[in-house]
Amino acid sequence: MSAPIESYGMIGDCKSAALIGLDGSVDWLCWPRFDSDACFAKLLGGQSNGFWLITPDEEIKATRRCYRPDTMILETTFETAGGKATLIDFMMPHGISSDLIRIVRGDEGEVAMCMELMLRFGYGATTPWVTRLKDGTMRAVAGPDMVVMRTPAYFRGENFKTVAQFTLTKGKTVPFVLTYQPSHLELPAPIEPDDALEKCEKFWRDWTATTKAEGEHAEAIKRSLLTLKALTYQPSGGIVAAPTMALPEQPGGERNWDYRLCWLRDATLTLLAMMNAGIYDEAAAWRDWLHRAVAGSPGETQIMYGLRGERRLTEWVIDWLPGYDDSRPVRAGNAAHQQFQLDVYGEVMDAFEQSRKGGLAATEQGWELQVALVDHVCEVWKEPDNGIWETRGPKQHFVYSKAMAWVCFDRAVRAVEQYRLDGPVEKWREVRDAIHAEVCDRGFDRQRNTFRAAYDSDQLDASLLLLAQTGFVKPDDPRFIGTVEAIEEKLLVDGFVKRYSTHEVDDGLKPGEGAFLACSFWLADAYASIGRKADAEKLFARLLSIRNDLGLLSEEYDLREKRLTGNFPQAFSHVALINTAFNLTRANKPQEQRANGHEHEGEPGRAENVQPLPDAKRKPAPSSR
Fold first, then answer.
1. DSSP 284-336
2. Which residues are within 8 A (CB) of 219 and not within 5 positions of it... i.e. 6 or more apart?
3. What is the C-alpha separation between 483 and 470, in angstroms, rounded?
4. 488: burial class by Cβ within 10 Å (0-12, 13-18, 19+)?
5. How many other C-beta atoms can be found within 10 angstroms of the C-beta atom of residue 73?
6. For residue 340, what are the contacts with CB-CB under 8 A and spacing of at least 6?
7. Given a cut of 60, is residue 625 above it in pLDDT?
8. Using an 8 Å Cβ cutoff, are 4 and 561 in contact?
9. Separation between Cα atoms, residue 400 and residue 238, nearest integer Å
10. pLDDT score for 503
11. Is 0.85 surpassed by the pTM of this model?
12. How far apart are CA 39 and CA 34, in angstroms?
């Protein structure tokens, strides 16, 4: 039986991340990048697929854990009959190598401890050749991969794993440092664990101090911002959807996707969350990653990319792993990268619009790319697509996709009107208005007073909750209010929102999944926008209550088992939490900034840093037309 997803904590170095259970076991780690093969894959298999356990070698009476305030340093305290000991886990951000450091500290009495290390490269398939060097260093090598362990504790080999036993008394510490290095390089230099801990704590505390999180939800916002930062691949600025793959949307099901990739659909809401929280460096890096990723022929734009913008994300099945809770297949890569999703063009244009409003510098090349994207959407907006949820059934004319095509042209028109950029604005207005008219004609069910999931469909889709905050309709439009009420009636189950009914929609897969948590935050946003503030706050409180003890959220929530499910922790869930918290507590709300063109709350005077394009690329000011 797999450990509950909510029993895991995450640590990371802004290049990769490890998941650590309540029992002190590292059950998931891909090295050296988020999307590398896992060397600890117990999460999707068993012990034989790799793990690293440090735990008392006696009965545990109680376990408590927490992050050190304002950091991603995880502390787990074990209480036994003989005393207490604390396990301190962290990874050093921005180091030359990649290090996983574990320091065990005696707190009270005397505690017997044990350590078991089983490295298995290639998602648990490859047993490395392990040697003990003259200085006591352990080196494990398999093909291109090398991992080195340094510790003062005595260790030995036993049944193809490395084990150690030691005893802690109050004030005594025993460190273990595991370092990844490509096998063709020299051994990495040793590091001093206590010094690394001090530097790591300073890094996270200094970063958190730059964020703007205040009010009653400040701690929830800060923890979500820290999680988002830890999911950022620092070398490129890309943000992974999650550090995991193949965690099922329903235990035992087949909806098991690789989320160690960067999605365009998250772009605008991520930028809003970052800029309103005052973290402009990360926002600029994300915007720049986005620009590089979509560069090229607009017709070849993908819905997702690799950490550095890679395009080939071939999906394959790891058939030697049984999967979390026997959920097969275990998929790596993601075939949805080849899908046509019309909404991503609106998402990209909206992200660039938000970056302009937020004061992130514009470039001539950036605008030229946007013009090319808009010109392409002129040609393809009438085509059916796979939709925001990447359905593997037949393509449809999804209403949200069409609305985001409208966003694409609307933001292009705004760029000309508000920033004096050059483009065929009359043509763009004409297409924008045509899309709006068609959606209101074919995508609105007058009998039920709700927008439809797709043209000629009687189904609903939770993405319709975003129609008002994109600006497609006003929040007080009776059609939007009717849509919110229809989604409440059809997709709201036990207080949580499903994306759509998998039992009634042909999405190419067997029915069954949990409630998609971002959609529930969107409903809270919609409640707030239509004047149902009390309902919004009640739903938001409910969502906060299902976070695990460390403040982390997964992709979905299992309504039957009352547990988190899907990939974990999920960036999109935490982005949604941040934006909803701001929508409920700030006068300058993210959803109004997006819909109406309001400026962002961030660094004072940040908009003054906008670098306009050369005059040759700008139109005359309106007063001189």
1. HHHHHHHHHHH-S-GGG--SEE-TT-------EE-TT---GGG----EES-GG
2. 213, 551
3. 15
4. middle
5. 21
6. 380, 383, 385, 386, 395
7. no
8. no
9. 25
10. 85
11. yes
12. 12
Could you identify the residue written with the tokens 């809401």?
Answer: 269
262 three-class SS: strand
CATH 1.50.10.10 given to domain 218-604: yes
Provide the CATH topology of domain 5-188: Beta-galactosidase; Chain A, domain 5 (2.70.98)
- Measured CA to CA, the distance from residue 111 to residue 415 in angstroms comes to 65
pLDDT level of residue 547 (50, 70, 90 thresholds)? very high
DSSP codes joined into one string, 183-211 = TTSPPPPP--HHHHHHHHHHHHHHHHHTS
CA distances from 522 to 277, 302, 439, 517, 525 (A): 19, 25, 21, 9, 5
Q: What angle do CA 560, 505, 325 make, to 5 degrees?
A: 35
| Residue 477 identity | D
Cα 183 to Cα 33, 180, 620: the distances in Å are 15, 9, 59
Residue carrying structure tokens 């790891």: 318
What are the tens digits of pLDDT across the range 386-429? 999 988 889 999 999 999 999 999 999 999 999 999 999 999 99
Q: Name residue, tokens 């390089």.
A: 185
- 3-state DSSP assignment of residue 76: strand
Structure tokens that stand for 96 in this block: 């030359």
Distances 240 to 15, 385, 420, 509 between C-alpha atoms, Å: 10, 24, 34, 24
Length of the chain: 625
Contacts of 185 (CB under 8 A, 6+ apart): 146
- Using the 8-state DSSP alphabet, how is residue 511 labeled? S
Surface-to-core class of residue 158, CB atoms within 10 Å of its CB (0-12 exposed, 13-18 middle, 19+ buried): exposed
CB atoms under 10 Å from CB of 382, counted, come to 13
φ, ψ of residue 518 to 5 degrees: the values are: -60, -35
Helix pair angle (267-276, 571-585), 10° resolution: 50
**DSSP state for residue 463 in the 8-state scheme:** G
The C-alpha angle with vertex 227 and arms to 174 and 90, in degrees rounded to 5, equals 10
Of the candidates 493, 496, 410, 403, the residue with the CA atom closest to the CA atom of residue 452: 403
pLDDT at 616: 37
- The C-alpha atoms of residue 173 and residue 36 are separated, in whole angstroms, by 32
Close Cβ partners of 411 (under 8 Å, ≥ 6 residues apart): 346, 349, 350, 352, 353
How far apart, in whole angstroms, are the C-alpha atoms of residue 420 and residue 624? 12
The structural domains of the chain, with segments of one domain joined by +, span 5-188, 218-604
Report the first-to-last Cα separation within the chain, whole angstroms. Answer: 70
| DSSP-derived pairing of the beta strands 450-451 and 444-445 | antiparallel
Provide the 3-class DSSP secondary structure of residue 589.
Answer: coil
CA-wise closest residue to 170 among 76, 250, 86: 86
Task: Please report how the helices 218-230 and 571-585 are oriented relative to each other, as an axis angle in degrees rounded to 10.
Answer: 150
* Cβ(275)–Cβ(3) below 8 Å: no
DSSP conformational letter for 338: G
pLDDT at res. 617: 46
Give 358-380 pLDDT, tens digit per residue. Answer: 888 766 778 999 999 999 999 99
